[in-house]
Amino acid sequence: MSEATLRGAAVGRRIGIGLMYGLWKPRVLGAWRVPARGPVILAVNHSHNIDGPMLMGTAPRPVHFLIKKEAFVGPLDPFLRGIGQLKVDRTTADRAAITSALGVLENGGVLGIFPEGTRGEGNFASLRAGLAYFAVRSGAPIVPVAVLGSTERSGRLIRGLPPLRSRVDVVFGEAFEAGDRSGRRTRKVLDEATVRIQERLTAHLENAKRLTGR
User: Fold this and answer.
1) Which residues, including other chains, have CB under 8 Å from residue 75's CB and lie 6 or more apart?
2) HSE-CB for 126 with a 13 A CA cutoff
3) Global confidence as pTM
4) pLDDT tens across 20-35, in order?
5) Which residues contact 161 (CB under 8 A, 6 or more apart)?
6) Rounded Cα gap, residues 106 and 117, in angstroms
C-alpha cells in the first residue's frame, strides 16, 4: 500500500467528516473500541447508501473500503481511488482487490468491509466468506459496526438515504479474533470462522438496537 493511498484515506476521512456531519446528525458510540494502531477490520451492516461514507466520517482512523467496481464510473473513479478506496469485482475472485486489501492490513491500516456484499436489510443474515478469509489470513481483529438510521420515508430526497438532518447512530462493538489461532486457512477453518463472525455481528447489531432504541 503506497503512501499516496494512506494520505488519500486520511483526506477521505476529512471529507467524510464534513459531509456526514453537515447533512446528518451522527451519534457515535464506542469508537474507543477501535484499536488505536495496527491492522483492524471494520465489519459494517449495510442498509443505507451512506453507510460507507458515514463510517469514513465517524471512525477514529482513516478507513479503506472494498467498494463494488460499478461505483467507479466517470469522475467517481479517480476520486474514490484518490481517497484510498479499493475497487472489487464481486462476480469473481478478484485477486487484485484481495492483494490490495491484504496490503492495507499488512501495513497496519483499517479495512472496511460490508460482509453481506451488497445493500439489503442490514441484519448480517447472509455473510460472504471474504471477511473470514481476510481476518484469518491477516490475523487482524474484527470490530463490528452497526450503522442505524431512520427508516421513515418522510423527509427522504433520495431512496436509500435517511432523511437529511436526521440522527444516524454509529455503534462500534468489541474487537474479536475470527480464527482459531492455529494459523491454518483450510475450508473448515474458514467456514467455522464465518459462523463465529456471524454470531458476533448479529449479537452486536441486536445490542446496538437496544442501546439506541432503534
Assistant:
1) none
2) 5
3) 0.89
4) 999 999 999 999 999 9
5) 48, 49, 50
6) 23
